[in-house]
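One chain given next:
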Amino acid sequence: MGIRRFRPITPSQRNMSVLDFKEITKKTPEKSLLAVKNSKAGRNAQGKITVRHQGGGNRNKYRIIDFKRNKLDMEATVVGIEYDPNRTANIALIKYVDGTLAYIIAPKGLTNGDKVISSERADIKPGNTMKLENIPVGTLVHNVELNPGQGAKLVRVAGQSAQLMAKEGKYAHLRLPSGEMRLVLANCKATIGVIGNEEHENVKLGKAGKTRYLGIRPTVRGSAMNPNDHPHGGGEGKSPIGHAGPLTPWGKPALGYKTRAKHKKSNRLITKRRK
């Protein structure tokens, strides 16, 4: 999908850009695959804010995506490519030969009328799902499972893909978009191809209101607060931080602080840490 810019007639349009949605072939969602999303606005069961900067936004419904691809050896036809407000990637509505409808994440190059299948003997083409042990080394994949049958957990964002680097025993070596090299069980499923809508990261919102449509509320600078509210707060006029480096509101270092658990069980599966 390309990016469209404006001839500015308002100040916000000067730096605004939007996707041209040329890949989208179906405008209205399939009602049977919609679910209600309850807005919590960052609050827990007690009504206390536990996640800041959430609330408001445009009302939308969740699209139920088939991350498991359990209908084995049954061919499906792509009915249409749709926009999904809940993720950066587009989604494809597919119809199986038995009449069942499902949504999948749309890989690059998938269009109306294309056939996709989940099988151990599937062709190596975008949209087909198979076990990592049956995929040739060097293939770009997405929607990767971490446990067999659990459903895809890795590489589900627009424009991303993982590369199958090697197969060794019961494990497959994957290079993830972050640069991390990881072992994944070879009997886990993955979908062939690169996820579409790769221009998503180049879109400029252009105005504060667009972040509000997304359900993101404003962020107040710590230096504008009082010292009882933030470690950066207080002082006369514009004051320096007063610490070795920037801190979070709870006093933890804000830059470069390692938050991963030291004895996490999956450490043994990571052969090279992310960049």
Q: What stands out?
A: The CA atoms of residues 145 and 152 lie 4 Å apart. The longest strand covers residues 76-82. The chain has a mean pLDDT of 93.
